[in-house]
Queue: 2 jobs
Job 1
Amino acid sequence: AVGLINSDISFTPKYGYFELRCRMPQGPATWCAFWLTGKYHWPPEIDIFENYGGASGSTVNKQTQSIHWGVSGKETRGYITRSAKIYPKKDSSFHIYGCEWTPNAVRFYTDGKLIRYQRVNNKMQSWLNEEMTIILNNGLEEKHLPQNYSKYITSHMIVDYLKVFQLAI
C-alpha cells in the first residue's frame, strides 16, 4: 500500500535546495520517502530520505540517503547509500529534511544540520545533470506487517510544508 504525490507534470527542477517539514509515521512496516528521480527515465535518483519501520517498529529511526546512477545491469550502474541515526522519537515530532543538489555535490540535512556530503564524481555527473521529478510517498512494507495489521493500515506521514529553491545555473 502506497500513497504518493509527485511533480512530474507541473515542475521538474534541475539543481536546487529541497526542504520538507514533516512528522514520520509510527509503527512496524512503515516506509516513507522524499526523493527526486529523472524526468524521462530512472536512474537518476536522489533519496533525500527513506525511513523504515521494519518488523518491530524499533528501526523507525533508520534514515537512509541514496544516490543512484547508470544503466541497470551495466558497468555504468552505481549507487551510494548511507544510513544516519536520527532522533530517538523522530516519528512523534516534526523535523526538517533538506537536500542541496548542485552540479558538483549533493548535501543532505536534518533540522539544518549537514548529515551527509557527496561529491558528484565523473561517473555520476552525466546522470545527475538533468531535470528531476519530486516525489513524496508513504507506504507499508507488506513483509513486515504483523498478523493483525489493521491498526497500521492508516499510517500517516504528516507534511507541514515542502519548499524548493531552484538554482540559477
Job 2
Amino acid sequence: MLALERRNLILEKLQEEKRVVVSELSQLYGVSEETIRRDLDKLDKDGLAVKSYGGAVINENTSIDMPFNIRKKKNVAGKQKIAELIAEMIQDGDHIAMDASTTSVFIAKAIKQKQRITLVTNSIEIVIELADVSDWDIISSGGRLKEGYLALVGPKAIEALDTYNVEIAIVSGKGFDLERGLTDSNEEFAQPKRVMMKSAKHRIVAVDKTKFGKVAFAQIAGLSEMDIVVTDEKPADEWLARFKQMGVRCYYPGR
C-alpha cells in the first residue's frame, strides 16, 4: 500500500471516529508505529489532523478543506436526502448551474433521468458523472484545476461562469450561519458560487445538518441572497423563524 493511500484511509477513519491511535493503526495496516507517526506528522503538517498523545484527532477547523475523495464519504445519507428533495424541484428543460461541492455530485446523480437539461458547472466530478447522459448540454467552466479537489477555479472559470444566465443555481459550502450566511473555506471556492448565484433566477442552497452554526473563511451569500434552503433534517426553530422573516423557503425530509 502506498503512503498516500494509507493516509487517505487514516483520514477516512478520522472522519468517522474523530480520533485514531498509533498502535491500532499500526496493526490495522501492517506497518510500524514509526511509519504511522510519519503519516500523522504529514496529516498534521497539511492541517488535516491534529497530533495528540498516542495518535491524532480530526481538525474541525472549517477553513481546512479535506480532499474531495474524503469529503464525498461524509454524511452520505444526508446528502442523498438533499439530492432527492432537489430532484423534485428540477423540471425537464431547465438551465442549471451547479458548484463543485460533493453535495452537488449527489444531486447530479439524482437528476440524471431529467430530460433536455442545460448544466453549467466548475466540477470535474459532475462532468464525469453525467458523461453518459445523451440529451443534456453540459458546459464546463474551464479554468485552473484545483489539485485534489476536482474543481475548476481562477479568473478563466469566473469569466466563463459570468457569461451564462440560468433558472436555478445550486450551491453548498463549509459553513451556514444565521448572521454570516453561507461560507466556504477559501476565496477560490467561494467566488464561483457567488457568480452562479448572481446569474440565477432561483438560488438553492444545499447544506446538510453538519454545516449549520459553522462559519468558514470566505462568505458566499447572506440569507437575503438565497431563495431556498434544502437540508437533511428539520432545522431548529430559530432557523425556521429567520428563514420566514427573510422570505427563504426551507425544505427537509417530511416537509
